[in-house]
Structure formats: structure tokens, C-alpha cells
Write a structure and sequence with these properties.
By secondary structure, the protein is an alpha/beta fold. The protein contains seven helices and 17 strands.
Length: 367
């Protein structure tokens, strides 16, 4: 079957090189830029690196150089509904969201992919650093060749159907190679800086974004220790995340970390570095998606990553309910955060993952 591919074009070097590689591989390639938000529409001042006029123009220039078509797709309302509102609600609930995973699940590999399939394309391509392998009638998701750039963690939500229509052309390449190739192609973005942090909060000021978006005042409350003793006053729970130790404004003879955020009482619980309450031997995850297997019926030994920038840890994984997994670590791990994703690996292969719903230290029943 003749393949037509639509490449997601952000106006950056990764998507630009991806479009070139797809044009060379499939010949029939087009580019599309997703318009996800505008500052004015979100009531947020300042310039944001995603969805600016300059980025759209960069994407258009790349497509002109590559002699491929380019279009702009307006997904602003869907992005706000599925990504931004979720980001705000999770923070307000005292948990820690990962909006990149939500964007991949609901926008890039759902909305964008469905648009492509409905408009005569067979596949889409993105500039993610990850690999797809097809073997024994199954698609597998693997880590990218450039481990320092590997993005398999944020892609664990992809289904077999979605993986069958996706290409990751940068999966076998190092970032340094991508920049060299962009320079050789005379792409205007060859030396363009990579986007940092969350696209709609590039300065990292999450609480400032949330306040500007909601227009709410988030009340201060008490910092307490694990015994309930008041240690100080916090500035509102949206300013903090589980595991945070900087910016607490509390003097202590040893390091203090946030071990729990309780939105009901508006209290933030702090624990010292050697406090057992800061660590959890078990985590429960829901909203499960499995890639490498159809189901986990018996316990399996694997490795689990509980944050994007952390190493995988050995663990045992159990199915407890239809949409719940229990993960047990040999030793308690520090501050697993509700709202983050736990992604299960077997070597370079992603088995699957889910959202951390709770973390604890003891079981009331045997597994």
C-alpha cells in the first residue's frame, strides 16, 4: 500500500529533521503544525515558546525547503480541555500532573492521528526519541538510541492501533546527529534552542500560570510535621509538589521534604530525610495501559520509573483489579507522587504503565 505520512511540525529542529527523513522514506509526506494555545486566550502574559507565530513560520519555512505541503491545525479547545484543565485540577488536588503524557494521549496520538487518517494519510510521524518494533503480530515501544533524550516514558499510553500508524524517525539517532543533519540541510532551525519544561509554562512558574488561568486566590495554610506539629505557613498548595525540599522557607537542622499535601485541610506535611514517612514500599497505579503484553495475570519482575528524570528501579508488579496494578519495591522509595506516571520496563522495552493513585508502606492483606 502506498504510504502517505503527516509529520507533526513544531518549528523545532527535531520535527524538521523528522519531516526530511519521512520525505526520503515515504516520498509522499506533508507537515502540520498543531495550534494548541494562545497566551491571550489563556489570560497569561508573556511569550511562550509553543504555538508562536515565529514557530509556525519556522515550520512553514522547513516545509518549503523540503518541498512538502504544510497546514496549521487548530486544536486549542481540545488542548485546554484535556491538558490544561487537567494540569490545574491535579495541582489543586495536591497531586503532581504530567501534561506531556496527557498531550500525547489526547492530542498528538488521538486527535492529530485521527485527523490524519480521516484525510487520506496512513501514518503520522513525530520527533520523539523512541523506537517502535513489530514482532509476532505485536507492536513494541522501546527506548530511543539517545538515552539522554529517551522519551519512551511519556509514550507508554499508546495503544497497538496507534502504534501501527506511527513512525518515530529519530529513534535510532543521537541528538547531536540530528543537529548536524539539520545544518547540512540548511534548515533555519539547525541551531534553535530546544524547548524546556512544559510548553505552556516554559519559565517553570506553575503556580503563576495556575493563578493567571483560574483567577483564584489560593489560601495559605500550615506546614506540619508527621506528628502534626505546626512548623510554619505555606503560600497555597498549588505552589508545592511531593518531594520538594527547596523554597519551603523553614529553617531546620536537617533537610525537610514535602511528604504529603492534603487539600481538604489545606495542610502540607513535611518530613526529614531519614523519616520513614517520606518513603513508600508500595504504589498503586490506575488508568492502566499495557503495550508489550495483553494482561498481567501473575506477578512479574521488571523495572519501574516513577518520574521522567529518574532511573528505573527493580520491582514486582501485581494485577489487583481490572484497572489497577500494585507495584512493590525491594526497598522503600522516596516520595512517589500521586498524579505522576509509573512506567514499567523490561530492558529497553516498555511493558506499560499507569497513574500513581497512592503510595504506602504496608499491606492489609497478602497478595
Amino acid at each position: 500500500m502506498h504510504t502517505r505520512i503527516l509529520t507533526a511540525m513544531s518549528g523545532g529542529v527535531d520535527s524538521g529533521v523528522s519531516a526530511y527523513l519521512m520525505r526520503e522514506k515515504y516520498k509522499n509526506c506533508s507537515g502540520a503544525t498543531m495550534l494548541l494555545f494562545l497566551n491571550e486566550a489563556l489570560n497569561i502574559p508573556g511569550r511562550y515558546p509553543c504555538c508562536t507565530f515565529e514557530n509556525i513560520q519556522d515550520a512553514k519555512k522547513i516545509c518549503e525547503i523540503l518541498n512538502i505541503d504544510h497546514e496549521v491545525l487548530n486544536f486549542m479547545s481540545e488542548f485546554e480541555e484535556h491538558v490544561i484543565k487537567n494540569f490545574v485540577q491535579v495541582y489543586e488536588a495536591g497531586a503532581t500532573p504530567n501534561p506531556c503524557i496527557a498531550c500525547n494521549k489526547y492530542i498528538k496520538f488521538d486527535l492529530f492521528l485521527n485527523y490524519a487518517l480521516k484525510n487520506g494519510f496512513n501514518k503520522i510521524a513525530t520527533g520523539h526519541y523512541a523506537k517502535i518494533e513489530f514482532n509476532n503480530n505485536r507492536y513494541f515501544l522501546k527506548k530511543g538510541e539517545d538515552i539522554s533524550r529517551d522519551q519512551s516514558y511519556v509514550l507508554y499510553c499508546l495503544t497497538q492501533e496507534q502504534l501501527s500508524h506511527v513512525d518515530f524517525p529519530l529513534g535510532d539517532r543521537k541528538k547531536s546527529e540530528v543537529r548536524i543533519l539539520a545544518g547540512n540541510l540548511n534548515l533555519p532551525v539547525a541551531k534553535k534552542h530546544d524547548s524546556q519544561d512544559i510548553c505552556f509554562v516554559p519559565d517553570g512558574n506553575y503556580s503563576g500560570f495556575i493563578k493567571g488561568y483560574t483567577g483564584k486566590n489560593y489560601l495559605p495554610g500550615e506546614f506540619v510535621n508527621t506528628s502534626g506539629k505546626i512548623l510554619g505557613v505555606h503560600k497555597g498548595i498549588i505552589n508545592y509538589t511531593i518531594g520538594q525540599r527547596r523554597g519551603l522557607g523553614i529553617s531546620s537542622s536537617s533537610r525537610l521534604y514535602i511528604s504529603e499535601i492534603d487539600p481538604a485541610s489545606n495542610k502540607i506535611i513535611l518530613a526529614h530525610e531519614n523519616d520513614p514517612d517520606l518513603y513508600s514500599k508500595y504504589i498503586e497505579v490506575n488508568k492502566i495501559n499495557l503495550i508489550a503484553v495483553d494482561d498481567i495475570k501473575n506477578k512479574i519482575n521488571a523495572c519501574v520509573k516513577i518520574r521522567y528524570n529518574q532511573k528505573e528501579l527493580p520491582a514486582m508488579i501485581f494485577r489487583t483489579e481490572s484497572d489497577k496494578l500494585l507495584i512493590e519495591f525491594p526497598e522503600p522509595v522516596m516520595t512517589p507522587a500521586r498524579g505522576q506516571s509509573a512506567v514499567i520496563y523490561n530492558g529497553d522495552y516498555v511493558i506499560g504503565g499507569g497513574i500513581i493513585s497512592r503510595a504506602f508502606n504496608s499491606l492489609n492483606r497478602k497478595i
